[in-house]
Amino acid sequence: MTIKEKQDAIVEEFSMFDDWMDKYSYLIELGKELPAIEEKYKDPQHLISGCQSRVWLHARHDEDGKIYFTADSDAVITKGIVSLLIKTFSGYSANEILNTDMNFLEQIGLKEHLSPTRSNGLLSMIKQIQLYARAFKLKENN
Amino acid sequence: MSYDIQKIRADFPILRRQINGKPLIYFDNGATTQKPQQVIDCISNYYLHQNSNVHRGVHTLSQEATDLFEGAREYVRQFINAEETNEIIFTRGTTESINLLATALKPWIVKGDEILVTAMEHHSNFVPWQQLCEKRGARLKIVPINRNGELDLEFLEKMMNPYTKLLALTHVSNVLGTINPVKKIIKIAKDKGIPVLLDGAQAIAHTKVDVQDLGCDFYAFSGHKAYAPMGIGVLYGKFNWMRRLPPYQFGGEMIDEVTFEKSTFNELPFKYEAGTPNVEGALALETALRYINETGIDAIRQHEDKLLAHAETKLSAIEGVRIIGTAKQKTAALSFVVEGIHPYDVGMLLDKMGVAVRTGHHCAQPLIDFLGLPGTVRASFAMYNTKEEVDLFADALVKVVSMLK
Ligand SMILES: Cc1ncc(COP(=O)(O)O)c(C=O)c1O
């Protein structure tokens, strides 16, 4: 599956919810199911700034050239959102990640979370994911 | 006369808004209050009929604008019962009022001096003093609070010594809702010759403020937390203080005479109002304070106390909810946490149901750290909120908790 296909699947999933409660209940579920990040990565270095709740994001660059993300947050909705991102981007190469647009978030009605003034920092999370991808790409090229 | 809540609500057009398909329940009044039509009209009327720069022109409009502007100052004086009109300095808000004072007091604070603040201060009444102390080699001492969110007066008194140059404390806590016994505290400080600044940001719209009765030297507040627009606020400073302190900013309005060699400064309050002031803000502030007066500050206080008591009863009945701040004297603000749930999640979902609350550290990080919390959810009330809204809010909260549990 490509990233695009994964995103389409998420959009499809979200299109079945007809009210906000179902949608947020689903996000909460996702948040609760998110595999735990290793405790040692919950440090200031992995903390994403710009979030009212704290978010930690860690990326691992595997020998297969793919990037794997783990994350955590102390707020469960934020965790659900970061979980969506990780589901989408984990297991792809830096190039694949950098060449994907983020329209799917709008399509699933999370656009309100995208504004830079929103304190959940979804935008910061996306930036951080891209930053990791860029850094790993630089390393590959060296 | 009974409190005519429907008439009041009708004056606030924004209350008719829907949020996420639900009628707005605005419980973020501690951050800023909504504005009545009278205040909104005052601003547009000013630009429709009087706009012109103040204290400058010989022409009719400028005269009118100046008279209105100075009339607003006089009204503020009456509202807080200051002795003299020139003790009322217009600023952008509480934050600027406090920064103004901290800058003006700078030469007076020397190495070894001490400034007292409390553990419940907003950053606005904390960071300026921390900075001043750092720059001048003075010590910032923090007056602790007890578990209920109250100051220990005996301890406070013990912290005062001959090096104490200022006590800066909040009249009402924006997080805990505690009304500090400021009159008593000021008396203790006065007996030791220590001047007192009160941060009145959370008090001015909720309780009677009489600066002469309180005896404070300085009092700061923001218009926007009292039904006036953003960008206007007040520093009350006793004449005998402000007369002797140096200016804050330099430019037009604040000078008396300027030559290439030297400038002399204008008299109070203009010494502290460099540049073109926020004229429409001052007029709208007068309108807002008149609105409070006509409603009656005591009636407002009673109404809000009832809302607070009702909200505390309702929330206490919800499993997992813990109220933060249980001082005997409280007003208008109710902070709480839900066991095992992050405040952010609560606020997010309440918003989906049309309820606007504040979440986080409320610009009082030292306090939140002291309480050992990740933040709180705060519902804060104003004169236009109703018991029915509190009920709807409590129902919404039950739903939120069940979603997140
Ligand atoms: C107690 C207290 N002090 C100061 C302020 C700062 O007020 P402003 O942002 O209007 O300057 C606030 C506002 O949140 C407050 O609650």
What does this structure look like?
Chain A is mainly α and 142 residues long. Chain A has a single domain (3-141), classed as Sufe protein. Chain: A (Alpha-Beta Complex). Chain A contains 6 helices and 3 strands. Chain A has a 3-stranded antiparallel sheet with strand order 1-2-3. In chain A, helix 1 (3-15) packs across helix 3 (76-89), helix 2 packs across helix 3 and helix 3 (76-89) runs parallel beside helix 6 (122-141). Chain A is globular, with a radius of gyration of 15 Å. The mean pLDDT of chain A is 87. With 405 residues, chain B is an alpha/beta fold. Chain B folds into 2 domains: 5-30 and 296-404, Aspartate Aminotransferase, domain 1, CATH 3.90.1150; 40-293, Aspartate Aminotransferase, domain 2 (3-Layer(aba) Sandwich), CATH 3.40.640. In chain B, the strands form 5 sheets. A 7-stranded mixed sheet of chain B has the order 4-10-9-8-7-5-6, with helices on both faces. In chain B, strand 13 and strand 14 form a beta hairpin. The termini of chain B are far apart. The model of chain B has no long low-confidence stretch (mean pLDDT 96). Chain A binds chain B through residues 20-21, 24-25, 28, 52-53, 74-78, 119-120, and chain B through 20, 341-342, 344-345, 348-349, 352, 359-360, 374-375, 403-404. Bound molecules: pyridoxal-5'-phosphate (PLP). The site of pyridoxal-5'-phosphate (PLP) has 14 residues of chain B, from helix 4.
